[in-house]
Fold these 4 entries.
Entry 1:
Amino acid sequence: MTPIIFGTDGWRGRVGEDYTFDNVRRCAQGFASYLADIFKPAELARGVVIGHDKRFSGRDFALAAAEVIAGNGIPVHFCQGPTPTPAISFQVVHLQALGAINITASHNPPPDNGFKVRDPSGGAIAPERLKQIEALIPDSVAGVRRIPAEQAEAVGLLRPFDPKPAYLARIRALVDVQRIQEAGLKVVYDAMWGNGAGWLDELLAGGKTQVTVVHGGANPNFPEMDRPEPIRPNVDAGMAAVRQAGADVGLITDGDADRMGLIDEQGVFIDQLRAYALMALYLLKIKGDRRPIVKALSTTGMLEILGQKYGAEVHEVGVGFKFVAPKMLETGAMIGGEESGGYAFGDHLPERDGILGCLLFLDFMVQTGEKPSELVELLFDEVGNHYYYSRIDTRFPGEKRPLAKERLDAARPEQIAGMRVVRFSGYDGYKYYTEDGGFLLIRFSGTEPIVRVYTETTRQDLVPAILDAGLEIAGLK
């Protein structure tokens, strides 16, 4: 059978190839065995939350996992209908469950699906714990215990429920939604054919603020985008909708609504590094929060400047919420995030929440009276410079990885695009810090056969040259 490896955020595969019902059942058995190992028998009655997104056969895969968890004598709280990842994570805490299984491939291409697991905090499980789960996954379905869904429901081990009311109530307790509703904003919301549709727009309904939803239905082929990832060119149709509507702002959530994206009033995409810095600035400047900030190494250096200016510690960790979430819990952080557009808020969960993030950005606009482009300029005034970001993804067969790794391990350039390299880190990638306060990062994706080359710099004119240098260092050019 296919070896199951949990990457940056769970296991993902191509439906019908390695992502099969049998392999989903094997994963679920590994998680059930893990729970039985770390919890006392009486504690297992707290159960596991299971949900899914709008991808092909999502509900069927979720039921397959539920049958296995129930077959191990552990109750399943089964989300009725496609459910945003943050709502699934919230229900773990709300129901005091042991954790969650989420059938979603998040931002991956249409043919993929995935298997995420969460701990009792609702956050990602730490890397060493994921290794324990992997080790407990049986080699074949012969090692899987399961009972049919109808039988599990009849004996009370499968418990369908509506996760929406409690989650929306929680969000309303965290954000003054009425203030946003009455602000009279004109909002375009791009749901990217994902789970956020019918959730974020419901929160904003009922006042003077008008919301136009695009890509709000269910279509696992994701028309008008390559994948439901809130970056260009996938957001180009949403940008056009903002311009056409003359909207004040565009909001985006990805396929499972744990990531977010922002479009300004001119229809210009606000990149995810600027978006993270804006979310941190909102908490520091508007909310007066001074708790720590946790950032993945692939995201913005503006956070260190803001942290120093406002007296908040900044902790840099590896890429993925399996690193971010545990550090947030350890430090009591106010926010944690990564380059992919996923931001978690300490008053809520150690889990990305694109719906909450979008509402907080609207609150930033309402409380300052500023347009999105003006908030970006406010950010640059705060950090003392303009920052520019870009990324190139290159498909890269797994068999070539050892040779590329050997090449990258040996590479220590003194200059990149004419700028001096002042520091190097080989932690979870190859990161070269440049004299202007920016960086070049090269790393292998933990979820796809891809090499990513990233840069953030104060030198807009050098962005292409820095990325080219990264491709050359990696042997890709």
Note: The mean pLDDT is 96.
Entry 2:
Amino acid sequence: MSTDGHYLGVFLSNKQGPRWQAWYAMSEQEQRAKNEAGLAALAAWDEDHKDQIVYQGGPLGPTKRTSADGISDVVNELTVFVVVRAPSHEAAAKLFENHPHFTIFPCDCVDVMPLLGPHSGD
């Protein structure tokens, strides 16, 4: 199993959980201030990790699920994704410690997993 040092970070958040409830309970002005602080912190995280970021990724939108039963709209906890390079799985996970998506924004966590197989484009 070769990962070539590439890892997928997927931020998860329960969009009906307490963190989002607290976000929506804030005034528009409070949300705007928190959003500005969060975006500045994300830009700083991106800059600090620019050598490890393989693919910037981004926010994930509404989900359609296709199965043997057809196509349906579903809600899941997938929120944002990014692909990073690191010497180990542990090192990749450590890149996300104290990340703004869950220290400022209402994401709950980030799952980090190796990308298996060949990679191209970097």
Note: The domain at 6-114 is CATH 3.30.70.1060 (Alpha-Beta Plaits).
Entry 3:
Amino acid sequence: MSTPKIAQKGPCAVEVEAGKTYYWCSCGLSQNQPFCDGAHKGSGMSSKPYTAEKSGTVYFCGCKHSGNGALCDGSHSKL
């Protein structure tokens, strides 16, 4: 699998805790969006770690096409 499945056409707002690492699903197959549940196994894709620098709301990419890693960059508006 070289193209990720679009989990949703918009960002996922998540409250994060400073210093904690979250594993973002890059394949779109996880049932625990926007986080990895291991569904990518055998797809050639892997989860991407995101470590929060500060506590607060961050917007994880839901379309899996962000050029900004795990965080939304508005790419969903072009799909």
Note: The radius of gyration is 12 Å.
Entry 4:
Amino acid sequence: MPELHGENVMSDFRNSLLRLWSVVLCGWCLAGAGCTVGPSPGVPAVMLPNPLPVPAANADVVWEQLVDVVDDYFRIQREERVQRFADVEVEGRIDTFPVVGATYLEPWRRDSVGPFERTEATLQTIRRRATVRVVPSEQGYLIDLAVFKELEDLQQPEYATAGRATFRYDSSLRRLNEPIGGQPLTKGWIPLGRDLLLEQQMLAALQARLGYLPVAAPATF
């Protein structure tokens, strides 16, 4: 028993050091960033419309530039190009795999835009995924970009010292009415809405690659 008590004390001490080191590291990074108020690098000073209207151009050029921008932030899961059947164009779509948010220890990654998002991703487990629709229009195309943000939902803190062999009562019993077939794959994540800053950063990068000035935002569809 004395040995077990000593191990628990050492575990609590290590966990306290880890939490203290995380807070100190985030504070140091924020101080280095200056905690300035204003647009983050890569985010336009004026909000771009989303969906973003793109003037009529070569569909292959627009698609390749869009895929290149998305690939800088996410790993693409599914890609369906804009297709033409007779005189009708069918919209294209890009879906990505979820990606865990960039922390202060990963300065080369750009998916956590601004000090707040990077600090949150350092202290919490945040992930993002993107969905892009390319809708044909009379003037060209509409780029509808949506980045969804989620927070990991754990049954207990990661470094909790409570015994894992103890029967727990804080989670309900899960019942599967149809055990055969597809099952949900995203359990354990809390939706946090859309990441507007990252959406704006990606749209600005696409606009810079295509080299045009945005036109007035069209009506929603």
Note: Helices lie at 2-33, 59-71, 114-123, 196-210.
